[in-house]
Amino acid sequence: DAGITQSPRYKITETGRQVTLMCHQTWSHSYMFWYRQDLGHGLRLIYYSAAADITDKGEVPDGYVVSRSKTENFPLTLESATRSQTSVYFCASRADPNRQPQHFGDGTRLSIL
Amino acid sequence: SQQGEEDPQALSIQEGENATMNCSYKTSINNLQWYRQNSGRGLVHLILIRSNEREKHSGRLRVTLDTSKKSSSLLITASRAADTASYFCATSGDSGGSNYKLTFGKGTLLTVNP
Asked: Binning pLDDT at 50, 70 and 90, where does residue A5 land?
């Protein structure tokens, strides 16, 4: 089905481990985004991408790495997870930045012990 | 820092009543969008209003935009229990790389009591 899917939906890991969150969209949207959502902070942009092989930092990029070798995939990696990275992570995609809305996945709830 | 700030943070009403949520922002925008988030789910786009528009309707939703005051409001008429959710405004900047990044507020939690 068309849409944007995130995997896994839930993940528990330990501090210091590497973890990768996956995001896949079927619309061939140019723009993709990663947000984290925390109580009291709303949604904060981690990284974004305007096209394959073009990525840039958002508001809170420290401790995260992204790649975009294919238009449809935008994985987010926590290289050495910390407890402060416990959060709900949302991936989103968008076609035309001036006219079209952003489409969100259902999120990954990540707990770091 | 957050561009949009919603007000109130929480709103509780009875079914059938109207719900009004406000959003204020700080810098010039290309457009402003409203999203809904049900518990445990991703955000769903409701409505987009461009900076040269003043009002927009979609079903039971009415959005206004006042660029001179840097504010927007979302009105949900004849609310239903199914409207219970968090509502977020998001702004898209009007220049350079900021025009495709959305900046979200912290949201208004709407509870509609049956």
From this structure: very high
